[in-house]
Amino acid sequence: MIPRSLLFGRGLALSHAFSNQNASTVHQQLSMTAWNLRSSLRNIRTLSLMSLWPFNVKPRDFSLPNASWRPEMSKAYEYYNALCEIEGDEKRRLWRKLPSYNRVLKYTTGGVYLSKIIQSKARLFTRNIKEPGAAFEYVVFMNKQEKRCVCVFQAGHLLEGPPGHVHGGAVATMIDSVMGTLAGYMSGPVMTANLNINYRSPIPLGSVVLLHSALDRVEGRKFFVTCRVTSTDESKLHTEATALFVSVNVGHLFGTRF
Ligand SMILES: CCCCCCCCCCCCCCCC(=O)SCCNC(=O)CCNC(=O)[C@H](O)C(C)(C)COP(=O)(O)OP(=O)(O)OC[C@H]1O[C@@H](n2cnc3c(N)ncnc32)[C@H](O)[C@@H]1OP(=O)(O)O
């Protein structure tokens, strides 16, 4: 909101201008008032940029590069990002970088109201750690036409399981998130009904891996998805997974059907 002091300050200047009866002084005062108003508008614009509004109209995109990214992460990001920028109009582009927010619901159409109703303090599990690089650093590139996506993932030090390696639950979280994002992108809201994971080789903590996810088939509301976690050069297989996602309507989140 605009601070009260700012509004009242300019309001006083305005009333003071019209209390003076002298014509030239009034003219002078009006010029001053116009200047004051212009300056107020400038201030308001500046203040809105300083995030004093109750709603953050431009949410932070957590999938953009930050200082915690290792060169390998940046290199993989640049590779896939370049695929997104291949010439041609946006609709014909095969690859698209997905933005990533800490509350998906809040930034979907009409979702701002739902996000207030459903656990307003809730935040996306993978995006709620403040320190950049400490946990899940990732970015998803979607190829809708080929019904697949690739996620570049850097596992931070808070994700330790076996000493020096990534916790299996953290790997499962990323797999579920990436597969769920693919299924959701293809169909709208989904929930994981079934998830099977085979851990083939441990992922060193701090390393960068790729998650390749593909839509295998669709049967009515059921979306069968696969995922492979590999090293960035794809020479090493870390994990394989299959999952079933079932499309749901918003009512399902409330425990009702409508
Ligand atoms: C808009 C795009 C944006 C994209 C950008 C999004 C970005 C966003 C990023 C975040 C991404 C996070 C992704 C995390 C995703 C979770 O973590 S979800 C949380 C974990 N999952 C849950 O809590 C789900 C709990 N389970 C349920 O709610 C319900 O069981 C389900 C899964 C919704 C299904 O219930 P239902 O709707 O009543 O459906 P139901 O009739 O039981 O089953 C439908 C069909 O599925 C089959 N089925 C159901 N469960 C199973 C099962 N376990 N095994 C085999 N078959 C099954 C049934 O047999 C049935 O088959 P048919 O008879 O039709 O052939």
Task: Report the β-strand fraction as a percent range.
Answer: 15-25%
CATH superfamily of the largest domain, by name, is Hotdog Thioesterase
Put simply, the count of helices is 6
Strand arrangement in the largest pleated sheet:
1-2-3-5-6-7-4
Main beta sheet: 7 strands, antiparallel
| Total domains | 2
Uncertain residue segments: 1-27, 39-53
CATH-defined fold name of the largest domain: Thiol Ester Dehydrase, Chain A
What is the CATH level 1 assignment of the largest domain?
A: Alpha Beta
Task: Give the names of the bound compounds.
Answer: Palmitoyl-CoA
Distance between the termini: 36 Å
Using the 3D structure, state the CATH architecture of the largest domain.
Roll
Residue-averaged pLDDT, rounded?
Answer: 82
Work out the number of β strands. 7
Sequence of secondary-structure elements: HHHEHEEHEEEEH
- Structural class, by secondary structure, is alpha+beta
Give the overall silhouette: globular
Helix residue percentage: 25-40%
CA radius of gyration: 25 Å
